[in-house]
Amino acid sequence: MATFSSWRTVARRCRSCRTPWRRTSRKPWAWSISRMPCRLWRDCGTPTPTPPQAQHLGRGGGFEGPTATGAREMEQLQLRSAQLQELPRGLGKLQQLRELSLSANKLQHLPEALGQLSQLRDLRVDSNMLISLPESIGDLLALKELHLSSNELRVLPATIGRLRNLETLNLFHNSIESLPNSLCELRLLRRLHMGSNSLRELPPDLGRLELLQELYLANNQLQSLPESCVRLVELLLVQLDSNPLTHLPSAMGELKALQELHVGSARLTALPESIGELSQLSQLYLAGNELRNLPQSFCCGLQKRGNGLERLEESFGQLQQMRKLFLDFNQLKELPDSFGQLSALEELHLKENHLTHLPESFGDLAKLQELSLRCNYLKTLPESFGRLTELRELSLSFNPLEYLPQSLSQLVNLEELHLQTTALTHLPECALQLKAEGTIIVWSDL
């Protein structure tokens, strides 16, 4: 068995059998190995290559050896895609290690010795086969980034609450059913990724994570959120799509910094009135719920496809920060006169509703660039339509249109106009003028 005096020696010896070691940076102790064509640390002293399916690191040979002073100075180690099934016991001797990547291997367990890496800042074990974590993971007191996505974890050790410097915890795509309440001790946590697990509830003290900015909980089994979550006043983004949520906390409006809220494909029938107090909210995704009306105080951006929405309140015009609006597949028959006050709107989707007319104020949407009105009951458009001079795409297909206003010819930036299956018997003069200016006209009778 070969014993090397340092990891630098390991790198030199591995060149003889073409092991793909490489430096990951200019730092003296930053090394990477992938695909493992030699049985590293076991018999790499021989120049004979062995098949790439070598599945573990041998013991000794510079990783455990008593003279492995180079290893003890190493700060970065990447062992991605190395077919590893286990790690050597000597892992804990890499006392200066700050970054460790073990992603895309076949690890089912991590050794207790992992907890000895007292300087570790960044640990990535994504895309393995982990079924548990060692209790000693709570000893990694310097850890800031912990990535464990795409594994087979069902529970987390309570000791994870000792990682008081942790800023990012990524557990996306595991099978976790509950979180230990000790998780709420991670007071510096800013990003919590728990999407695509089996969570049925959240810790009641979740609100203690006062610096949390991103909370990803999509594709779980959550029916409600703890009331304490309204204390997460630094939250910028909340992702809750595809959960059987029946309601949101009544004090949701306390999340004053919130910019994006995703609650699509849930079971919401109403929104809390306080949601109108989210003055920074620019994107709200509610597609696939059972909402019928919006709160009077509503003042945010919106994606609300397929909800059976029948009307919009006059207060809807207060959404003056909204840039994109998706209201496809609802039952809207008209839009409020205040609709033209959506002065920041750039993209509007109203496909497959029951609209019979548009308000004259529609022409005040001066920044509108993309508009879909296909599959409604429109017979004409307001004369003010010609003021939408920033419009680039306009779809009016599958409406019983009988007339287009001449002002339509003023849409000098229009690139595409869709008029398939309307009641028009010929292409109107305004459309011919647009065509002459280079607009692509899609009309079934052309």
Automatic annotation (TrEMBL):
<keyword id="KW-0677">Repeat</keyword>
<dbReference type="InterPro" id="IPR055414">
    <property type="entry name" value="LRR_R13L4/SHOC2-like"/>
</dbReference>
<dbReference type="GO" id="GO:0005737">
    <property type="term" value="C:cytoplasm"/>
</dbReference>
<dbReference type="InterPro" id="IPR003591">
    <property type="entry name" value="Leu-rich_rpt_typical-subtyp"/>
</dbReference>
<feature type="domain" description="Disease resistance R13L4/SHOC-2-like LRR">
    <location>
        <begin position="77"/>
        <end position="149"/>
    </location>
</feature>
<feature type="domain" description="Disease resistance R13L4/SHOC-2-like LRR">
    <location>
        <begin position="183"/>
        <end position="265"/>
    </location>
</feature>
<keyword id="KW-0433">Leucine-rich repeat</keyword>
<dbReference type="InterPro" id="IPR032675">
    <property type="entry name" value="LRR_dom_sf"/>
</dbReference>
<feature type="domain" description="Disease resistance R13L4/SHOC-2-like LRR">
    <location>
        <begin position="308"/>
        <end position="422"/>
    </location>
</feature>
<protein>
    <recommendedName>
        <fullName>Disease resistance R13L4/SHOC-2-like LRR domain-containing protein</fullName>
    </recommendedName>
</protein>
<dbReference type="InterPro" id="IPR050216">
    <property type="entry name" value="LRR_domain-containing"/>
</dbReference>
<dbReference type="Pfam" id="PF23598">
    <property type="entry name" value="LRR_14"/>
</dbReference>
<dbReference type="InterPro" id="IPR001611">
    <property type="entry name" value="Leu-rich_rpt"/>
</dbReference>
